[in-house]
Amino acid sequence: MPNKNNLFTDAISDAFVQSMQKNKNVIIMGEGVTDPKGIFNTTCEALKRFGPQRVIETPVSENAMTGIQIGMSLLGKKSIFIHARVDFSLLAFDQLINNASKWHFMYGGTMNIPIVIRLIIGRGWGQGPQHSQSLESVFSHFPGLKVVVPSTAHDCKGLMISSIFDKNPVVFIEHRWLHNYSSNYSKKFYKISLNDSIGLKKKGKDLTILSSSIMLIESLKVEKILKKFGISLEILDLRVLRPLNLKKLFTSIKKTKNFLFVDNGWKSFGVGSEIFANILEKKLILKNTPVRLACKNFPTPSSHYLNKDYYVTVKDICLEVCKILSVKKSTQKKIIIQCDKILSKVPHDLPDLNFKGPF
Amino acid sequence: MPNKNNLFTDAISDAFVQSMQKNKNVIIMGEGVTDPKGIFNTTCEALKRFGPQRVIETPVSENAMTGIQIGMSLLGKKSIFIHARVDFSLLAFDQLINNASKWHFMYGGTMNIPIVIRLIIGRGWGQGPQHSQSLESVFSHFPGLKVVVPSTAHDCKGLMISSIFDKNPVVFIEHRWLHNYSSNYSKKFYKISLNDSIGLKKKGKDLTILSSSIMLIESLKVEKILKKFGISLEILDLRVLRPLNLKKLFTSIKKTKNFLFVDNGWKSFGVGSEIFANILEKKLILKNTPVRLACKNFPTPSSHYLNKDYYVTVKDICLEVCKILSVKKSTQKKIIIQCDKILSKVPHDLPDLNFKGPF
Amino acid sequence: MLNLFGLARIRVIEKEIAREYQKREMRCPIHLSIGQEAIPVGVSKSLNTKDYIVSTHRCHAHYIAKGGSIQKLISELYGKEDGACKGIGGSMHLHDKSINHLCSIPIVGGSIPIGVGIGYALKLKNKKNVSVIYFGDAATEEGVFFESLHFAALKKLPVIFVCEDNKYSVYTSINARQGNRSLKKIVESLNIKFINTLNNNVNDIEQKTLQARSYAISNGPVFIYSKTYRHLEHCGPNNDDDLKYRPKKEIDYWLKRDPIIIEIQKLKKIKRFNENKYLDFCNSVRKEIITSFVNAKKSKPFTFSKLSKLEYAK
Amino acid sequence: MLNLFGLARIRVIEKEIAREYQKREMRCPIHLSIGQEAIPVGVSKSLNTKDYIVSTHRCHAHYIAKGGSIQKLISELYGKEDGACKGIGGSMHLHDKSINHLCSIPIVGGSIPIGVGIGYALKLKNKKNVSVIYFGDAATEEGVFFESLHFAALKKLPVIFVCEDNKYSVYTSINARQGNRSLKKIVESLNIKFINTLNNNVNDIEQKTLQARSYAISNGPVFIYSKTYRHLEHCGPNNDDDLKYRPKKEIDYWLKRDPIIIEIQKLKKIKRFNENKYLDFCNSVRKEIITSFVNAKKSKPFTFSKLSKLEYAK
Ligand SMILES: Cc1ncc(C[n+]2csc(CCOP(=O)(O)OP(=O)(O)O)c2C)c(N)n1
Ligand SMILES: Cc1ncc(C[n+]2csc(CCOP(=O)(O)OP(=O)(O)O)c2C)c(N)n1
Ligand SMILES: [Mg+2]
Ligand SMILES: [Mg+2]
């Protein structure tokens, strides 16, 4: 098993290898899946074990390849197609939305499309406007799709295996910056249900933070910081956006009566919008106005000077929590110092100091 | 002027002809724009006057045509590209999202893309899952796009002219069922600002309904019905979704303290989600829980038996208002009788009795 | 008279649909194949029942020729539960898994990569079958057409592309859309064998598809090209020649080359045409389809409340 | 020695960027053109300054050869306000309106239709200029490539498609992606004139583009095809031959056919090579670019608070 480091990418590789072992119909396709870098080292092990007949290099033809995936699935092949950036999947929206998402329904339930579209959100080192979109809210609008946004290695592996063996098209979105995070996960073959939208990552009582993917990781850092100042956060991981099941969120908000949503993408018509609408409809009583924190409302600027304030940071989250909870100014100052210390450790446009690319 | 009938389609035709007269760089492109039906008779007059050099037939190549539009715009051409169904635009998402929406921003403000993408939402006579999507919430997520969803002939003309002369890419979404509605509009060349998101269509005091496009028309019918029963509705037309300006909505809700949103598409991650999120953030005080009414949460079924209950009807809206306002059961019964009478006049899968297709 | 019967079967069904459609009880768009029957009849005759087909918005003839259930077709048009898609897909999504007609898609070009994917799965599974992809002349303008042919050739897939060139995309002539490019050259440039067929000639199409089939299984993709003509409007049950988007001369030319006329002439020449048998056959089809109408009208619609359960496969 | 200078100018700039990049102050992806300079130099020499170009992620050489501002290029890499895009676009969005280089787009194939649109506007405006579209071998696999060529041919647009075939898409060889299809046949099948050029030979490329240009203006699109090779990794300043995705033999073959070596050999043969002049020239470019680095480092970044104003053009 290649998970001696317990990296997020190892978890993906593991999910692939074990799924391919379990079922000979599972295959991987995509641009670069057989190259020396193997999509950030997530397909190399599968290629080594199962060869290029099951880890299939493809031309740069995104829309056709998605249709081909659908066709293959009709004859029992379960394929994972990988786009190295979310942005490239926009070329395949016709097949993905018009066909894959509606297929089971429009053919009266006579067929189903068990495919995975794996998308990677780019960020940092000047990725810029066309290599860093985070479009999970868009995919989540479409009936028939499932949308998975994991944040830990453990979840990632279990959710990927579930996605591969799900009978429906699953859009699996992972953040480039999670790749080098390591966290424990089992070496066994295990699934995490796609019906279990929310994972409780930290219990707390003052305020609930809901977030996904890399922002969940940032939120966990915030929890640690604020704990020292006597602020107790409950951290929920929104790991499946469709089907969406917000029960755990409602329970949490009923307890904390304060809420902050931290988005990976844009605020308007985004993930937070749907969450907030549900809260309003549920008539949950909040002590303070809830907030949606999100990327600034324009495309990602490439320049590191400019994207420094584009993404939400631990500091932004801390400050927002302080605002919501009316934390004393003097405490806030101390929190800011802590945040600045953490932020200064790694340049803001790198996930960690080991990060060398490929960018 | 071809607006002797004051049809919605006449208004579009008028907007085209007058804009083309005003500026020789304005051109129309699309599949079928020069055919005998001229996109529901909206391009015929322009073709007659300006010829096939300015009303340009194109191959069935949606993505390239959108890129070509962008390229032409860089040299000053202002083109309107028409997709006879919203669904076909999914083939052009790469050019529309990755390029057009970000262009002005990513080139540091040195260039801009003044194009219009005109999309028609299909409905009725068995259009089915791939010919009736209503994706305005998806477009509205993207910084750089403007999204216009007119509902009356007057607005349509003014908004179309503004869209054509706007310096940015505008997604102009109209509903097939509006085409045969006639309503007064001026024969002059006039604009309606795209910054003016909301039009006040009826003043009222008991409850605010916000909706767009065909659902605004249905809401106006509801207003008439309920007035007879002493229920006073304020009807707001959400005609520009991006940039979104909700001031008028907030003012209205502060007055009525009751709110219903009626959507043309799906509820989850939809237009209503963003509206509701704003209401929650604004801490508006509502007497009763607001409601998002929307299409059922699956693709459009083709069968008229099955799509009968798929779309929101005047009856659904009336019942929802009654629920929110706790209208007496006896009154509700009378209202239902009224609704049923109206609904029985025209089969539910036709916009009106004159509707013969093309479907 | 087998070929003639094949053609007549589709013709009679389509004509009956057109007639019955006027009652406005089949409430969905229909794209009839009248005039274009030779291609699916010829192609289907040369296929093995386990071969696959995918189709477009104009799918009736492909479905019928492959042997799709008529009741399921008609009930689908009426929007009933016993329709091919339980009424959910409508006329443009015909399919019948029992005959390996897996889908029809009304997004132009949309089913082409799907058929290629089926071919790829066949190849990976070492099946000696082909995947047949029907599409119109307009589909050859879509990027996905190019991408799909490219991939099929790259992987040498057992795919037969069948292009039915009826010269129009809705009301727009192929010249306005494609100029004078040569589809043959495009296809061949992608290393795909191109086979032209005699217009509306079932026998020729059948023979060539037979060759194509074995070629595709052992060598890779083949492209069958066939000129043809639709007699009625693009969408709907009527004739729309009053719109004058098609030259009268052209219409006359093609009406004379109606596949059924061609077939009858051929049979007459070799003295094999038995008019009574032909009329009997047509009547029997008419009876079958009229029974289907009756049944369809009696069938129940699918239950609305069950629809939401179909969002996902369980 | 003009051609040699053209090549050397790009080479020196790119090498200096690669060197300076190691300091990690230019914090954006870079796709260097070292080894591929012959094509943009040859093409640009034959163009009129008012001709347009569009490019891809690998845009430095196109930009420099057309005469784009070096300061704007370098400042863009540093993410500063005086960069081509004020730092917003980064290395993959180079453009300079003053020389009619209108855009670079890192979505593979993404700028092809845009260049066609420019060509269409030129034609509608009766301008006697061309639109030049640079792209790599992988872009010819995208559907939009096909659609764009099709439209350019249909409307006979003054467009020159320039394909730089460096045999790889990132680490993937063209054979794995395209098999043995013939791009020449594909292009010609679309009624577009195809012109092959001598590998990395500026003079040949220049002559052929000159012909192509006048042909394009009077007759319609032309396709210039050129084999070439990149010396460094796909993205980044380093050599990545240790990854062994390219055969050693192949690398050696192409290093010997480095455009600069070819040009120097040519000049030596006709006894026109003046080494001192050449070294002086390289030094002067080096100075220019080093000044650009210095300036760029001193420049200010664009103001973050102004960014939201750039969502829309006013
Ligand atoms: C992507 C897309 N663009 C446009 C349309 C509208 N449309 C429906 S059928 C059709 C014509 C198709 O022509 P062709 O492929 O030749 O088939 P035919 O109808 O002639 O059989 C068009 C353009 C569509 N359905 N899908
Ligand atoms: C639509 C899309 N798919 C995939 C990618 C990832 N990608 C970036 S560069 C590249 C290779 C392009 O190869 P080629 O066009 O030959 O240009 P080269 O890099 O060789 O100059 C790929 C696949 C992308 N940018 N866009
Ligand atoms: Mg046709
Ligand atoms: Mg290349």
Summarize the entry for a quick read:
The complex is a heterotetramer, with two copies of chain A (359 residues) and two copies of chain C (314 residues). Chain A has 359 residues and is α/β, with parallel strands linked by helices. Chain A has 14 helices and twelve strands.
List the helices and strands and how they pair.
The complex is a heterotetramer, with two copies of chain A (359 residues) and two copies of chain C (314 residues).
Chain A: H1 8-22, E1 26-30, H2 38-41, H3 44-50, E2 55-57, H4 62-74, E3 78-83, H5 93-101, H6 103-106, E4 116-121, H7 136-140, E5 146-148, H8 153-165, E6 170-175, E7 198-202, E8 207-211, H9 213-227, E9 233-238, E10 240-242, H10 247-256, E11 259-266, H11 271-281, E12 291-295, H12 304-307, H13 314-325, H14 329-345
Parallel strand pairs in A: 1-2, 1-3, 3-4, 4-6, 5-6, 8-9, 8-11, 11-12
Antiparallel strand pairs in A: 5-10, 7-9
Chain C: H1 2-21, H2 38-46, E1 52-56, H3 60-66, H4 70-77, E2 101-105, H5 112-124, E3 131-136, H6 143-154, E4 159-165, E5 168-169, E6 172-173, H7 174-178, H8 183-189, E7 193-196, H9 202-218, E8 222-227, H10 248-256, H11 259-269, H12 275-298
Parallel strand pairs in C: 1-2, 1-3, 3-4, 4-8, 7-8
Antiparallel strand pairs in C: 5-6
Structural class by SSE content of chain C: alpha/beta
Indicate the low-confidence ranges of chain A by residue numbers: none
Oligomer: heterotetramer
> Strand-and-helix sequence of chain A, N→C?
HEHHEHEHHEHEHEEEHEEHEHEHHH
Binned strand content of chain A: 15-25%
Approximate shape of chain C: globular
Main sheet specs of chain C: 6 strands, parallel
Counted up, domains of chain C total 1
User: How many domains, in number, for the residues of chain A?
Assistant: 2
